Amino acid sequence: MTSPSNLPPRREAVRLKNARKLSTSSQRWLQRQLNDPYVAAAKARGLRSRAAFKLMELDDKYKLIEQGARVVDLGAAPGGWSQVALERGAAKVIGIDLLEIQPLAGAEFIQGDFLEEGMEARLIEMLGGKADLVLTDMAPNTSGHVATDHLRIMALAETALAFACDILAPNGAFVAKLFQGGAEREMLNTLKARFKQVRHAKPPASRKDSKEMYVVATGFRPE
User: Fold this and answer.
1) CB of 79 closer than 8 Å to CB of 95
2) Taking Cα atoms as reference points, which of 179, 140, 126, 135 lies closest to residue 161?
3) pLDDT per residue as tens digits for the range 155-197
């Protein structure tokens, strides 16, 4: 796959037409989409989302997706991260989301909650063994209140981490979205106890005005 750094040259800014009926927030969102080089590049390459570039950039830096890897993608819709995992050599990719995901050759998608009883055993059986990599780009609906939003995404990330620890193979890896501030002490202590290396990263594809960042934990150590 072409390196995500080789994006199309920045075009002259596109202005919205006939946008008077849209709210101010909708106008801002559309304006940003129209002038985002990652959106244009994702469309040109047949990628399901601009977020695919975030995983590419994290994988370029940390070498997360090994040839033949078994990958679980939590909150997978619309399938952009699963798509990247397959294109970079994963042998098995299973995505889970509450939303329906359009089929993707080589991947299996489950519409449901990863916290459903028996989901860990189901995934391990589908993968043919424990996972080498657990990914989550999930984020809760934001309220606009910084402290509340931080608590919500931390709770989601901690839940995903607990789930990952149940299905990861020795030396596996875990990647999760957080908001600025990174992993809080309790989660960080768990990460450091269960993984050899824990790092925070903000890939270039993450918008500068976004508070999101990612925790990248590698070298899983089963209890």
Assistant:
1) yes
2) 135
3) 999 999 999 999 999 999 999 998 876 677 889 999 999 999 9
Residue-wise pLDDT tens digits, 50-105: 999 999 999 999 999 999 999 999 999 999 999 999 999 999 999 999 999 999 99
Annotation says 177 is catalytic? yes
Structural domains of the chain, with CATH: 7-46 (no CATH), 52-220 (3.40.50.150)
What are the phi and psi torsion angles at 62 (to 5°)? -115, 0
Nearest CA to 175 out of 136, 121, 139, 127 is that of: 136
User: Do residues 35 and 12 touch, judged by C-beta distance below 8 A?
Assistant: no
Q: Which of 17, 177, 208, 211 is catalytic?
A: 177
Pairing of strands 131-136, 107-111: unpaired
State how far the Cα of 87 lies from the Cα of 65, in Å rounded to an integer.
10
CB 70 within 8 A of CB 127: yes
Residues 178, 206 contacting (CB under 8 angstroms): no
